[in-house]
Design brief:
Distance between the termini: 40 Å
Number of helices: 6
Oligomer: single chain
Strand content: under 5%
Largest sheet: none
Helix content: over 70%
Order of helices and strands: HHHHHH
Structural class: mainly alpha
Length: about 140
Amino acid sequence: MRNLFTNKLHINKYDILLFIMMMMMIGGNLGGFFQPIRLLFIGLAPVLAYEWFHDATLRQKYRLEYIFLALWVIYATISLIWRKDSIECLKLFIHLCIYVTCFVEILWLCMRAKRPLESITLGWLAMFACSIPIAIW
């Protein structure tokens, strides 16, 4: 059995972003539409778009996922027709687009990270540890 504490943790910026993403989940519904996790994903969207347009292997490797997500957004656009409340409908459409972007960005971060499983696990454990005092209070 190898000693996990003697091995150095080799991480890159994508691992750190995964860790931060999991830590921001502690915010929950704080901020309404401007939840911390949504702001992170909205901020990362231009970086993802830049890499997607300049990396042909990324487009080719995840082609089916992008087709699925594009069909998801098309369905959301078509579903605007049979909604009664146009303001609520627009809000739901924006939320759906943000969630689709979140899904793609999680795939992108996991693909680029050196140790995605460890980063997500450590972020989740840190979020859990930070939320214990709130739960006790």
